[in-house]
Specification:
Growth Hormone, Chain: A, 17 helices, mainly alpha
Length: about 475
């Protein structure tokens, strides 16, 4: 089975599965806004003289880091709430605490989602994150230690929510619609980044910084109501699904597991080269994305002498490009599959190639066009945009080769991505501290090399066939038992 499913049917955008994708889009939107709310609010929360010293050491991940040098000066805020005396080092610890929480729950939450159901895991994660967002202003009044604890637990809750999504798609997404559905859902993160960058400063200026947490925390609670009301783990259990849609989904998804409780074949996974190809792709993808989005304000303001903090729209353009390319890439990938123009393995490798090769070309070109403001901005927008074409490549490849363990494997994959982000940020800081101009050239060349390694590894070893260890083992019949006894 290389990826030409028998059924060919156009997508029904009014169907329940597309409604599920939109709600998941809203969930991802909510979680990313909650995750980066502090990066916007911190400008008004701390003393302006201390804030001046805070740079890219305060990070929260690929989408959040661009906000650490956010757009509004402290003088622009009507600070109607408490101002805290937090040093730049303390702020860095607060920012990074959410990442440690995410790392702690990525792998176990993926496994538990397969046992207890992704609806409960993802819904609980979103609810906890929303409540903790509402609690953050009060926690700040009690002291920095409580803020760090709150952010760490919030990271754990969001780790539960991120990885649980693929368990749902393993049962809801027909093979010819996987790219569309997962990219519609996943694009919520980029769209949320764009929105909070545009309105976060305005909320803080007009209402006061606590309302950033109150608004987006409340939004998350509303999303939880939708989630627990509309979402079901399995289309067979949903009371509102039409017979036609249910039959379409079930007929296109062979090998539905009869029982969610199963042992994880760790040994088989460790020795599975197609799985390592996916992990390598994640590592390469997150390496460059983290560098660009973390150091975007510094790179533009220093090399082009343009203060990106004075232009929220300019800062948000990469996120719009990322959201657009994510959705368009998913539409194109499933179009190629539904028309039988390309095999599944070809589509996955094509979009993986585009998502790793095109950003590498743009990154390598950046040092040579540093004198041109327009070209530099275009390349910086294209890097995260074209990188997200990987969402229709190796990013969802675990749904192809091991749908039963998709959430568990997604947790491991994201773990590789987080490690890449940590290493790449550290390496970038070291290289540009030696010599700024030549350091950036080395950063981009190294990133391109990492991307090329991941691409070659995936093109060589990537597969789309369901692996033997991921197949459902048929339960023994009564006749088999009798024969065994004889």
């Amino acid at each position: 089975m290389d990826g030409k499913p028998a059924t060919r049917r156009g997508p029904d955008f009014c169907s329940l599965r597309y409604g599920l994708a939109l709600i998941m889009h809203f969930s991802n939107f909510t979680m990313i806004t909650q995750r980066v709310s502090l990066s916007i609010a911190i400008i008004a929360m701390v003393n302006s003289t201390q804030q001046h010293g805070l740079s890219n050491t305060s990070t929260e991940g690929p989408f959040a880091d661009a906000f650490n040098n956010s757009s509004i000066s402290i003088k622009e805020f009507d600070t109607k709430a408490t101002v805290y005396q937090w040093s730049p080092e303390t702020q860095g610890i607060i920012f990074s605490s959410i990442n440690y929480g995410i790392i702690l729950t990525l792998i176990p939450s993926g496994y538990l989602a397969g046992i207890f159901g992704a609806k409960q895991m993802l819904g609980a994660g979103l609810l906890i994150s929303s409540l903790l967002t509402l609690f953050t202003p009060l926690a700040a009044d009690f002291g920095v230690i409580l803020v760090i604890v709150v952010r760490t637990v919030q990271g754990m809750a969001q780790g539960m929510a991120w990885t649980g999504q693929f368990t749902i798609w393993a049962k809801w997404a027909p093979p010819l619609e996987r790219s569309k559905l997962t990219t519609i859902a996943g694009s919520g993160s980029a769209f949320g980044s764009f929105i909070i960058l545009c309105v976060g400063g305005l909320i803080s200026q007009v209402l006061g910084w606590p309302f950033i947490f109150y608004i987006f925390g409340s939004t998350g609670c509303i999303c939880c109501l939708l989630w627990f009301t509309v979402i079901y783990d399995d289309p067979l259990q949903h009371p509102c699904i039409s017979v036609r849609e249910k039959e379409h989904i079930m007929s296109s998804l062979p090998q539905q597991p009869s029982s969610p409780r199963r042992a994880v074949p760790i040994k088989a996974m460790v020795t599975c080269l197609p799985l390592w190809a996916i992990f390598t792709g994640f590592f390469s993808h997150f390496w460059l994305c983290t560098i660009i989005l973390t150091y975007l304000p510094t790179y533009i303001s220093t090399l082009l002498h343009v203060n990106i903090r004075d232009s929220g729209v300019l800062s948000s353009l990469p996120f719009i490009a990322a959201a657009s390319c994510t959705i368009l890439g998913g539409q194109l990938a499933d179009f190629l599959l539904s028309r039988n123009l390309l095999r599944l393995i070809t589509v996955r490798k094509l979009f993986s190639s585009l998502g790793l090769l095109l950003p590498s070309v743009c990154a390598v070109a950046l040092p040579f066009v540093a004198s041109s403001y327009v070209i530099t901005i275009i390349l910086l927008i294209l890097i995260p945009g074209t990188s997200n074409l990987c969402d229709s490549g190796f990013i969802i490849n675990t749904l192809d080769i091991a749908p039963r363990y998709a959430s568990f494997l997604m947790g491991i994959s994201r773990g590789f991505g987080l490690i890449a982000g940590i290493v790449s940020s550290t390496a970038t800081g070291f290289l540009i501290s030696q010599d700024f101009e030549s350091g950036w050239r080395n950063v981009f060349f190294l990133s391109a090399a990492v991307n090329m390694f991941g691409l070659v590894f995936y093109l060589t070893l990537g597969q789309t066939e369901i692996q033997d260890w991921a197949k459902e083992r048929p339960s023994p019949t009564s006749e088999d038992i009798k024969l065994f006894q004889i």
